[in-house]
Amino acid sequence: MKMRWLTALFVLGLMAPLAAHAQGARATAPGGPQPAIEITTTVHDFGDIYKQDKYVHAFVVHNRGKADLVIEEVKPG
Question: For the chain, which residues score pLDDT lower than 70?
Answer without folding.
Answer: 1-28, 76-77
